[in-house]
Amino acid sequence: MPEATGIPDFNSPVGQHARKDFPLLEADMTIADALERIRREGVGERVIYFFAVDADKKLVGVLPTRRLLTAAPETPLRDIMVRRVVAIPATATVLDACEFFVLYKFFAFPVVDEQRRVVGVVDVSLFAEEILGEREDHARPTAPAAVRDDVFEALGFRLDQIRGASPLRVFRFRFPWLLATVAAGTICAILAGAFEATLAHSLVIAFFLTMVLGLNESVSAQSMSVTIQMLRSAPVTWSWFASALRRELATAILIGLACGAVVAGIVSLWRHDLRAAAVIGGSIALSLVTASLFGLAVPSLLHRFNLDPKIAAGPVTLALADICALVIYFTAARLVL
Fold it and tell me: Which residue, 112, 176, 190, 287, shows the most beta carbons closer than 10 Å to its own?
């Protein structure tokens, strides 16, 4: 592969970055014949897959290195090759190739012409090293299904940054998520109506309703922003989520107790109502903990399912935080007041 002097032009043909230092293997060859050709012709610095062609030199299969090394010498390549091959057209751009890596999560793709003849190979090191500034261990063996999540997730973020979009496309992408806010507002209005008698009985509950919602939205937005930043450099795994959950829960409890105590003190000094102070302060403490957890869980879940947490997490997180806060707030008020 040509040496990179910087970040490649994403609109340039991917063929300019494709490697040519690899042998093609006829599908009718045996394993022994294939290994002999590989020894004779040599390979480049990085070998991930070998590619099989027919008599017309057209791509017909891919041979993972592990299969090639572990099969019996007399086995025909046709018997062990993967026939369903994903190839990048030679007319594709570097940006198109990025999307192939994010979508399929393979380590390498063949580049083919109009007749499906292999003209080169492009592997993930082009993006991991030149774009992401990361280095992989070239000596470590890999398998087609064993992908490095951190590379592909980081690459997905890069695509979001470099891909241009028309205003209409941006609208179609963002508007459906904003419907979550509309739905949450409707649900909150219905909840307020259901607790109308409670609000009428204790007006102080209504006085602090805006503060409760504001605090919940602020805390959930803080937690969400921190989580999105972490997701840029960490794959979403159970161990990562468990560690982040413990850290966020400890922080949320401290924030909830502090804010709840301050607001309870304000209510007590202003209204001289200890029961109302306990309800409002306790509700704030509990709802802020749930808001923080929503701020962690929602973007993590969206990212795990390859949805953009930068766009979708905000409306969804705030909607859930508002609904949960009102349920806690009104329920506590009805039970105590």
Answer: 287
Query: What's the pTM value of the predicted model, to 2 decimals?
Result: 0.52
Residue 280: φ, ψ to 5°:
-70, -50
pLDDT band at 183 (very low <50, low <70, confident <90, very high): confident
**SS3 assignment, position 50:** strand
Instruction: Return the half-sphere exposure (C-beta side, CA atoms, 13 A cut-off) of residue 237.
Output: 9
Average pLDDT value for the chain? 81
Domains, the chain: 14-161 (3.10.580.10), 166-336 (1.10.357.20)
The set of residues, in sequence order, having a beta carbon less than 8 Å from that of 189 and lying 6+ positions away, is: none
In this prediction, residues 5-20 reach a mean pLDDT of 73
pLDDT in tens, 19-45: 888 889 999 999 999 999 988 888 766
Give the pLDDT confidence score for residue 175 in this predicted structure: 79
How would you classify the pairing of strands 88-89 and 59-64?
unpaired
Answer whether 328's CB lies under 8 Å from 209's CB. Answer: no
Rg (CA), the chain: 28
Burial class (CB within 10 angstroms; exposed 0-12, middle 13-18, buried 19+) of 68: buried
- Cα–Cα nearest to 125, from 24, 227, 17, 9: 17
> CB neighbours of 19 closer than 8 A, spacing ≥ 6?
1, 44, 46, 120, 121, 122, 123
CA distance 25 to 54: 9
- Record the tokens describing residue 150, joined without a space: 């951190």
Q: Report the helix count and the strand count for the chain, using DSSP H and E.
A: 13, 6
- Choice among 14-18, 86-90, 117-121, 153-157 with the minimum mean pLDDT: 153-157
